[in-house]
Amino acid sequence: MKILKVVCENFVAATPEVVKWNSWDSEHLNSVHGAYDAPKYLLTREGEVLFVDRVKVPFFRIRLKCLVFAIQWDSENQITYTLTPFFLAKNTINVQQINDGTTRVRVIYEFSGNWIQALLFPIFKILIQRWNQTVWEEDLPLKLRRQKALSYGFIDFRGIPDKMEMRKDRTGIYKASIPVPTTRNVEEFSHPFFISGRS
User: Fold this and answer.
1) Total-model pTM
2) Per-residue DSSP letters for 38-70?
């Protein structure tokens, strides 16, 4: 078995916590990203999730059934394992603040492959790089909008304060809840096996 690796890197004018919020926000997956069908969560608890989905293969019209487990390994690294009918994948999302206004986001995609998959890896690498860029561009407005809202004092499920004197910049104190709290009765949590470890 050979481990095939692709590394993609981007930069954003947002804090690492905003980047983590975007990565862990379950409600945006199928509404923002065309590649996701309708993820159904099986397990959520602090710092980890397990879900099933049908993910579109980049630039093809087929969807693969996937079982996905994600964990916030430490303050800078989210690790996700994806099991498909053809391969097991691991991706690590590393977020690092490189100055007061910019965060570097490095995604390391790793795949366990046989010799045929290794032979096709140059094509696969191009597909993964395009996938990463597409997802990045779809997510970027969400990151930037949340960063701006936090600078106006935004609080989840409460919004931006009405009074100007209450609008304190929260970008320095904001910590993303992982997984991100959701609105009630969302479809993503309708699977009959779903359990939550959150209180």
Assistant:
1) 0.88
2) --EEEEEETTEEEEEEEEEPTTSS-EEEEEEEE
Cα(178)–Cα(97) distance, integer angstroms: 19
For the segment 128-156, what is each residue's pLDDT rounded down to a tens digit? 999 899 999 999 999 999 999 999 888 88
- Dihedral angle sign, alpha carbons of residues 174, 154, 169, 171: positive
137-157 in b/e burial notation, b at 16+ Cβ within 10 A?
eebeebbeebbebbbebbeee
Which residues, other chains included, contact 54 with Cβ-Cβ below 8 Å and sequence gap of 6+?
Answer: 37, 38, 63, 64, 65, 66
Query: Rounded to an integer, what is the distance from CA 165 to the centroid of its chain?
Result: 34
pLDDT bracket for residue 86 (50, 70, 90): confident
Tokens of 55: 């993910």
Amino acid 47 reads G
Say which residue the tokens 């096709």 belong to.
120
Q: Which residues partner with 36 through β-bridges?
A: 55
**Residues pairing with 79 in the sheet:** 71, 92
Helix (H) / strand (E) element for 77: namely: strand 77-83
In CATH, the number for domain 2-185 is 3.30.530.20
Q: pLDDT digits over 17-30, tens only?
A: 999 999 998 888 77
Taking Cα atoms as reference points, which of 186, 156, 140 lies closest to residue 38?
Answer: 186
Q: Three-state DSSP class for 80? A: strand
